[in-house]
Design a protein that fits this description.
Layout lengths: L7 H5 L3 H12 L12 E6 L2 E6 L14 H14 L3 H14 L10 H9 L6 H6 L1 E4 L6 H12 L2 H12 L13 E2 L2 E2 L2 E5 L8 E3 L4 E4 L5 H14 L7
Parallel strand pairs: 3-6, 6-8
Antiparallel strand pairs: 1-2, 4-5, 7-8
C-alpha cells in the first residue's frame, strides 16, 4: 500500500522458520557448506509441486556468496506476494476508490497500521471515562465490580472482552471516545438486563453489553468469563 520495499524482517512475523532459514543463508558461507541453491523455488498448487523461477533463467543460476543478498531480496518479495498478486491488485483498486492511495505517502507503515487497525494498548481509564450505562449508574455495585474485573485482567483478556462486546479487539485512534457502531459514533454501553442466572450478552453493532444484576463479584466474574471464553454466535435485532 505504501510501495515500500519488503525486507527480510517482514518475513519473520509470517513464517518464522523460513525467516530463520534465510538468516542462516545470510550468516554462513553457503559455498563452504556445499549447499546448492538456485534462483528457483518450489511451491504447491492444489497438491501439485511446481517450480517458479525468481528471475529469468533462475533454474540454471546458482546462488553464490556474491549473489546471495540478491537471492534473499528476491525470495522475500516472492514469499510475501506469491499467489495473491491479483487479489492484492483488486484490494488496492477498491481501497483507492475510498481513500486515494497517493494520500498514504504522508504516513509510514506504523502510522498506517494504527489508522487501519487501531491501538493495541487498552487504556482502562479512557474506556471507563467514555462508557455509558442503562438502568445502572456508575455507582451501581455491578458496574463497580465490572471495572474491578476489567482492571484485574491481563491485556489479552481485555482484548477478548472488547472483541466480545464490540466485535474488535483494538481501540480506534482517538481512544474510546471514537468507538463506532453500525449507526455511527457509539459509546461502550453496559445495560442491566435479565436475571442473575443469565449469562451476559453482547450486541456488537451497538457496542453494548447486557449485564444481569449479579449478586456478588465472584458471580459476575464467573459469568463474564464463561461468556467471553465459551460462547460464540450472532443474532439480529
Amino acid at each position: 500500500m505504501l510501495n515500500k520495499k519488503l525486507i527480510m524482517k517482514d518475513i519473520e512475523s509470517i513464517d518464522p522458520e523460513y525467516y530463520n532459514s534465510l538468516m542462516w543463508i545470510k550468516d554462513n558461507n553457503i559455498e563452504e557448506c556445499g549447499l546448492e541453491m538456485y534462483f528457483c523455488v518450489d511451491f504447491e498448487v492444489l497438491g501439485e509441486i511446481k517450480p517458479h523461477e525468481l528471475k529469468p533463467g533462475g533454474s540454471e543460476l546458482k546462488v553464490t556468496e556474491e549473489n546471495k543478498e540478491e537471492y534473499i531480496e528476491i525470495v522475500c518479495e516472492w514469499r510475501m506476494s506469491r499467489g495473491i498478486e491479483e487479489q492484492t491488485k483488486s484490494f488496492l483498486e477498491g481501497f483507492n476508490e475510498v481513500v486515494p492511495l497517493e494520500w498514504l505517502q504522508y504516513f509510514d507503515e506504523r502510522e498506517l497500521e494504527l489508522m487501519l487497525c487501531g491501538m493495541q494498548v487498552i487504556d482502562v481509564d479512557d474506556w471507563q471515562r467514555h462508557s455509558i450505562y442503562r438502568h445502572y449508574t456508575k455507582n451501581s455495585k455491578q458496574i463497580q465490580w465490572f471495572w474491578q474485573f476489567v482492571r484485574s485482567m491481563d491485556h489479552e483478556k481485555r482484548s477478548r472482552l472488547l472483541q466480545f462486546v464490540c466485535g474488535t479487539c483494538r481501540v480506534p485512534v482517538g481512544g474510546f471516545a471514537e468507538l463506532m457502531g453500525s449507526n455511527g459514533a457509539q459509546r461502550f454501553c453496559v445495560e442491566k438486563v435479565g436475571k442473575d442466572s443469565w449469562l451476559p450478552r453482547s450486541h456488537t453493532c451497538f457496542n453494548r453489553l447486557d449485564l444481569p444484576p449479579y449478586k456478588s463479584y465472584d458471580q459476575l466474574v464467573e459469568k463474564l468469563n464463561f461468556a467471553i471464553e465459551e460462547t460464540e454466535g450472532f443474532g439480529l435485532e
